[in-house]
Amino acid sequence: MSASPQIGVLLVNLGTPDAPDARSVRRYLAEFLSDRRVVEIPPILWQPILRAIILTTRPRKSAHAYAQVWTDEGSPLAAITRRQAEALQAAFGDTVRVACAMRYGEPAIGGTIDALKAAGCERILVAPLYPQYCAATTATVVDAVGRHLQALRWQPTLRVLPPYHDDAAYLGALKISIETALAALDFTPDVLLASFHGMPERTRTLGDPYHDQCQATARLLSDALGRSVEVSFQSRFGRAKWLEPATDTRLEQLGREGRSVAIFAPGFAADCLETLEELAIRGKRQYADAGGKDFAYLPCLNADAPGVAMLETLARRELAGWL
């Protein structure tokens, strides 16, 4: 450990394959879909399905989707999260050491905590980049941190950034980002559609607050923007009933009705496969195939100034008493 203890901030996002090829995607999906917070089917029933069917068919299809959005910096999610960490580091200066990790894939949470600890950080704020709480996202980050701490003789003191779905800093950043993007369009959308990642309906009945927090975000954002914001849920998987309305179904309906749409994804801190491919590419095609003409995808907060300012505000609040 260094002579002068430091404070660390660890930004954590979902994760990404190392490359847009079937082998890398298979390795990533095996880790992701083996998390019992993500798939709550008993392993004795789920693992044979995962190994024999999903991991033999899905990786090639997913790799093709990743290839459509891959950049010179690699995965958009990984590249943007790195830039967020760099921008937050610049905002804090030498008072805080900022790092980023992925829940699934690299850089791993455990190794990044070790690196912060080796750099002298005895106090660390873990910041899951999920505005709305969900057991399959926020809670699994806390689970992974806890498992790693079990192996440490000298554990750092930790705080965890709480969900910020209704925080004024978050809503203000979204307002600026959305209004800036809308002003650059050559049409005024009839519908402003907030697409959140879907979850099985069962998680809601079991008490997960995710659905209600998504609805609260949209309601508060409607008030801030002075116009209605609709909610939909994307990325359905499997045969179980998922949260509704489904984004793809809603886009097809809007296309048939000839209503223009601007869609955005306020539950994602950074653009990724689910926004750049599923919404901006595939969603646009679904809308156009149904007869729609005017469609726009509005980017996430990413590492732009409003988003970074929001992260700094949230982090400084949680670091009160440490800084």
Tell me what you see in this structure.
- This protein is of the alpha/beta class and 323 residues long.
- The chain folds into two domains: 6-164 and 306-318, Rossmann fold (3-Layer(aba) Sandwich), CATH 3.40.50.1400; 168-297, Rossmann fold, CATH 3.40.50.1400.
- The chain contains eleven helices and eight strands.
- The chain has helices spanning 22-32, 43-69, 76-92, 109-118, 135-149, 168-183, 201-205, 210-225, 247-257, 273-289, 305-318; strands at 6-15, 96-104, 121-128, 157-160, 191-197, 230-234, 261-264, 295-297.
- The two termini are 19 Å apart.
Number of strands: 8
- Share of helical residues: 40-55%
CATH class of the largest domain: Alpha Beta
Number of helices: 11
User: Distance N terminus to C terminus?
Assistant: 19 Å
Total individual domains: 2
Q: Strand portion, in percent?
A: 15-25%
CATH domain fold name of the largest domain: Rossmann fold
Structural class per helix/strand content? alpha/beta
Radius of gyration, rounded? 20 Å
**Uncertain parts:** none
Average residue-wise pLDDT: 97
